[in-house]
Amino acid sequence: MNISAKITDERVADVRCSDDSLIVDLMDGRTISVPLAWYPRLHSATADQRSHWKIAGGGYGIHWPDIDEDLSTEGLLRGAPAPKVA
Q: How far is CA 54 from each of CA 11, 16, 72, rounded to the nearest angstrom?
């Protein structure tokens, strides 16, 4: 029996936002889409602020310098929203 391993690459290829979603394309061809409402800083940011992002963490993270927000592909793949602030 031949078992082939799937090769995944969870590094960020591209990031964009719609009015209500954060969409992240990964290097392996997958696309993650999550509600912007899960990330209050991104949700309340302007479109220009959202579009100004940088790849961080060796390719496994996204940083928005204008709003000081950082997300990881690991968290996005887990479906982890930002922690609630009391």
A: 12, 12, 12
pLDDT tens-place string over residues 42-85: 999 999 999 999 999 999 999 999 999 999 999 999 998 887 76
CATH number of the structural domain spanning residue 64: 3.30.2020.40
- Using an 8 Å Cβ cutoff, are 76 and 57 in contact? no
Does residue 72 lie within any of the structural domains? yes
How many domains are contained in the chain? 1
Per-residue H/E/C for 54-67: EEEHHHCEEEECCC
Q: Is the pLDDT of residue 9 over 80?
A: yes
